[in-house]
């Protein structure tokens, strides 16, 4: 039996060759997977907000300072896209665990595989990242190469389009929630930023049996979405007495804050409402600087945790969890892969209410 599906010898990637430049279709010769490599046809690829940052080439650090991604080892041209579901079309001679025709979710947060961090299973935190869609070509493409079958996860019964979101949005949310557990039934979780990730966090928390959830957002529409997703209380953080209201509503029991915005105001707000021993998990990358009185860090014994994507083990656990709970029933817009540029543009301009998923 052949381990290859016939392709016409070339394929298209939508890539940019300078930061903030156009996403141009570029023709590549079809690769032949070697060793453990697996070649997949991209079926669906989610368009994530971090694609906008990578495309821009920087993250804001506050006070006009920028973290320049070009200095962080991102080489041009870049083919974005790290939320990919694809179908295996060819496998290398050593990739015995992968078979042509299987549809799989790809774990994109690949590391060097050799350092202590990778050995511990935290490839997403490796100092020599090889993440797909950032450091290696991603899913804004007709085909994608994955270095080893271990990064491919069976979707079970999940809808493959929506399941693409599990590789980043879903995983990021799931990993952040794992960092605040265990929680006592009476304790509250504050979700700051009720857009895509915040909404998914609320649904995940609810599915996990946690009902004391407060959704915080400046947008009334998003507060409404948070309420529908299962938040017990919703709040506009700009209202004058927001912190007092929150402390009162939660009966002084704010044990955890998930900050999906990550700017100076939200972090300050989160630290203010946490009770002693509470945990602030920052996931958002809006930027800014953290200033906090050090004695409070000690006397309140709060934990400040940064959370970046998640591990391969967590993604597998999440896929199982999503098969058991109704997580992915969220508004999505399916857009043709050729329109990748418009998707990044719309997301950058805040014109997207649900999630855009590119379809090849
Ligand atoms: Zn992402
Ligand atoms: Zn490593």
UniProtKB/TrEMBL annotation:
Cellular component per GO, a single term: cytoplasm
Keywords: Metal-binding, Oxidoreductase, Zinc
Keyword Metal-binding tagged: yes
EC number, as in UniProt: 1.1.1.1
Cofactor: Zn(2+)
SUPFAM superfamilies: GroES-like, NAD(P)-binding Rossmann-fold domains
Superkingdom, natural source: Bacteria
Annotated GO MF terms: alcohol dehydrogenase (NAD+) activity; zinc ion binding
Domain Enoyl reductase (ER): from-to ranges: 21-358
Pfam entry (one): ADH_N
PANTHER family: ALCOHOL DEHYDROGENASE 1-RELATED (PTHR42940), VACUOLAR PROTEIN SORTING-ASSOCIATED PROTEIN 11 (PTHR42940:SF8)
Similarity field: Belongs to the zinc-containing alcohol dehydrogenase family.
Entry protein name: alcohol dehydrogenase
